[in-house]
Design a protein that fits this description.
The structure is a homodimer of 357-residue chains. Chain A contains 12 helices and 12 strands. Chain A has 3 domains: 53 residues, Orthogonal Bundle (434 Repressor (Amino-terminal Domain)), CATH 1.10.260.40; 129 residues, Rossmann fold (3-Layer(aba) Sandwich); 131 residues, Response regulator (Rossmann fold, 3-Layer(aba) Sandwich). Chain A is 42% helix and 14% strand. The longest helix of chain A is centred in the middle third of the chain and has 18 residues. Strand 2 of chain A pairs antiparallel with strand 2 of chain B, so a sheet runs across the interface. The structure holds a DNA duplex (16 and 16 nucleotides).
Chain lengths: 357, 357
DNA sequence: TTGTAGGCGTTATCAG
DNA sequence: CTGATAACGCCTACAA
C-alpha cells in the first residue's frame, strides 16, 4: 500500500508496473468486458499494491463531472438547516456524491459570492435552501444550465425544481388548534419577508384567521427574522396593545422560544396566560421542560428529497419539466398551548408527549 | 452576461474573441505584470462579456490544488459539531476555500469509506473531528502526505497537528464546583471510549476526585456514547446503588439532558436532590427552563483554529513540526447545580445567568 | 485483446 | 510583450 513516490500513483505508474498501456489499465479498472480476466486481475493487484486511486480532478475534467454538489443554507449552526443538510448528505453519500456546504447568514451579497465560488468549482449541482424568493441568482443558474433545486424557497418567477412543505397548512393547523381551545386574539410573529416559506406561513395564518373570525387585526402581526431576539421583541410589542393576544403563533421555534422567555420574564404563564406555538420542531421543542407545541416539517426528508430531485436533474439536465415535491407537516401538540384564559380559567393542564431524544 | 454556447466559456473562447493566445489571456487575468495595460483591459472586458470564469477543475489539475478542504465530523445535526463546522467555514471562506462535510455517525467503516471518497477528490486538506484515537487512517494520511488536522481527537501514536481544548480541566472544574457545594458522591457519565476527548474528560474527573477525596468508587462510573439515551440509562444505574450519587457529571450536554429527564421522571428534583453538569454548552443549555451548568468549549473558535492550522500545513506540507493548539474552556454555572442534600437541605436556590440567545 | 492519440481547460516555460 | 508548446491525469474513439 505505500506509494514510494512523493505523489499519488497515477494510471501511468500502474501501466508501467504491469507492462501495459494506460488505456488498458483504465478499461480493466472500469470493469469493461473487453479486457481479459487475467489482465484485469493483474491490473487490480498492481493498482492495489501501488495504492492507486484515480484522480477525481483529472476524471472530472475529462468527464465534466465532479460528483460533488453544493448546498447553500442560511446557517449550518441552526438545527433546522443542519437537519436538512443531514438529509441531503445521507442520500448523496449513497450515490457516491459529496457535499460542499456554505452558510449565507441570510446575506444576499455573501450568497452571490459563495455561489460564484461554487460555480467556479464546476460542481454537478446546487441545492439552494437560503435564497431569497426574488434573487437574481436563480434565473442566472437556469440560464447557465446548472442543475439546481430550490429547497423550502420558491422563486417568484423562475419555474424550478422545488422541494418544500405545506407551510400554510402548518400555521393554519396551529391557528385552528388555538381556536379550538377558545383563543380569538391570536398573534403571529413573521419570518424574513424575502423568504417564500415565511410568506406561506404567514398566508396560512392569515387564511385561517379570516376563515374563523372573518378578519384580522393587523396589530397582531409582528415582524421577525427567525432569531430568538425577534420573539422577545414581539412580546414587548404585543403586551402594550389595548387587547393583548392570548396566543402567539411564531414562524419558527427560535422565535417561539424567545417569546416564551420574554413572557416568563414579564411574569406571564405559558400556557396559563398566553399559549405559544412554534414551527420546525427542532429537538429542543421536545424537551420536557419546554414541551413546545409546534409544526414538524420532517426536515431530513426535505433534504433527502431535494437531493433526489437534484440527482434526477443531473441525469437529465434540461429535458424534464420542473418538478415539485411538497411534504406534509404535522402539528405536534405539547404543553405550551392550553385553553384561552377568558373562556376558561388558566389551568396547568399539560399534554406532554414522548420526547424525541 | 450570457454565454450563448451551451457550455461555460473557456479561456480559448476569450482568446479567440480578443484575437489573442490563451496564454496571454491567462496572464492578463492573473494580473501578471508582463501584459500591456490596454491588453489586460481588453481581456477583462471580453471575459466579463462572455461570462468567463476559469474552471476550477482544469486549474486544479494543472496546479494540483483544489481550494477545497474536507471535514469529517460525527454528526452535523449535533449542535456541537455544527458549531465546529461553522467556525471552520467562516475561516476557510475568508481564504477562498470551500468545505466538504461528511458525517461519520461514529462508524469507523463509514469513516474509512468517506475518507476514501474525499481522498479521491484530491482535496487540499482534511479536518478530522470524528476519528477514533487509534484509527489506522491517521498514519495512512501522514504517509500519503495529505495535510490534515485532528480536531478534539488526539491520536495515540501519530504526532499530528492538533486543535483541542483542556477537556480534563473542564471536568475537573465541574467536580471542584460540586465539591465546593458539599457533594462527595459525584458520578460520571462517560463518552465513547475511543474518543481521546472523552478520555481526557474522564481523566479530569478521576484526577479531581482523587485529589479531593483520595479515591473513587468505580460504581459511580457509567458508560456512555454522547447520546441522551445513555444519560437516562446512567441514572437508572446510579439509583439502584446502595448510596446513590448526589451529583452527576456528564461528558456532554445531551447525556446531561437525558439524565435530567430521567431524574425528573423518577420524581427527583434537580438540583434539590441531584445536581447535574454537562459539557459543550450547546445553546439549549442556556435556555432558562434548562439552565444547565456546563463547560463551555468555544466550539466555533476550535473550528476556526483547526482551519488555521490546516491552511498553514497546506502552505508548508511536510516542513514544520506538528503543532498543537489547546483552547481553554470555562465552567458556566447555571441552575442545575446546588448544595448537596446531606450537607444542606434541598433548596430551590437558582443561580440563573443571562441566556445566550 | 491491447495500444495509440487526442483532448478535457489551465498555467508555466520558453521562444519569438 | 505575446505566442506556441507541453503537461497536469484521465477516458474514449479508433487503430493495430
Amino acid at each position: 500500500m505505500p506509494d514510494g513516490l512523493g505523489r499519488p500513483a497515477t494510471i501511468k505508474d500502474v501501466a508501467r508496473a504491469c507492462g501495459l498501456a494506460p488505456s488498458t489499465v483504465s478499461n480493466a479498472l472500469a470493469g469493461k468486458a473487453v479486457v481479459r480476466p487475467e489482465t484485469r486481475a493483474l491490473v487490480q493487484r498492481t493498482a492495489e499494491r501501488l495504492g492507486y486511486r484515480a484522480s477525481g480532478l483529472a476524471r472530472g475534467l475529462r468527464l465534466q463531472r465532479t460528483w460533488t454538489v453544493g448546498a447553500l443554507v442560511a446557517d449550518i449552526a441552526n438545527p433546522f438547516f443542519a437537519d436538512l443538510v443531514r438529509g441531503m448528505e445521507d442520500r448523496l453519500w449513497a450515490e457516491g456524491y459529496s457535499l460542499a456546504i456554505c452558510s449565507t447568514d441570510y446575506d444576499a451579497d455573501k450568497e452571490t459570492a459563495l455561489l460564484r465560488l461554487l460555480l467556479d468549482k464546476r460542481l454537478d449541482g446546487l441545492i439552494l435552501a437560503s435564497t431569497a424568493s426574488d434573487s437574481d441568482e436563480v434565473p442566472r443558474l437556469k440560464r447557465l444550465g446548472v442543475p439546481y433545486v430550490l429547497l423550502n424557497r420558491r422563486h417568484v418567477s423562475e419555474p424550478s425544481d422545488y422541494v418544500g412543505m405545506d407551510n400554510a397548512v402548518g400555521t393554519a393547523a396551529a391557528v385552528a388548534h388555538l381556536a379550538a381551545l377558545g383563543h380569538r386574539r391570536i398573534a403571529f410573529i413573521q419570518g424574513p419577508p424575502r423568504s417564500s416559506a415565511a410568506g406561506e406561513r404567514l398566508a396560512g395564518y392569515r387564511g385561517e384567521m379570516r376563515r374563523r373570525f372573518g378578519g384580522l387585526d393587523e396589530s397582531l402581526l409582528a415582524p421577525g427574522d427567525y432569531a430568538a431576539e425577534q420573539g422577545r421583541a414581539a412580546v414587548d410589542r404585543f403586551l402594550v396593545l389595548p387587547a393583548p393576544p392570548t396566543a402567539i403563533v411564531a414562524a419558527n421555534d427560535f422565535m417561539a422560544l424567545g417569546a416564551m422567555e420574554r413572557l416568563r420574564e414579564r411574569g406571564l404563564a405559558v400556557p396559563g396566560d398566553v399559549s405559544v406555538t412554534g414551527f420546525d420542531d427542532i429537538f429542543v421543542a421536545a424537551l420536557p421542560w419546554i414541551g413546545l407545541t409546534t409544526v414538524r416539517p420532517h426536515s431530513r426528508d426535505l433534504g433527502a428529497r431535494a437531493a433526489d430531485l437534484l440527482l434526477g436533474r443531473i441525469g437529465a439536465p434540461t429535458a424534464a419539466e420542473p418538478r415539485e415535491v411538497i411534504l406534509t407537516s404535522e402539528l405536534v401538540v405539547r404543553g405550551t398551548t392550553g385553553p384561552a384564559p377568558l373562556s376558561a380559567p388558566p389551568s396547568s393542564r399539560r399534554r406532554a408527549t414522548t420526547p424525541r431524544r
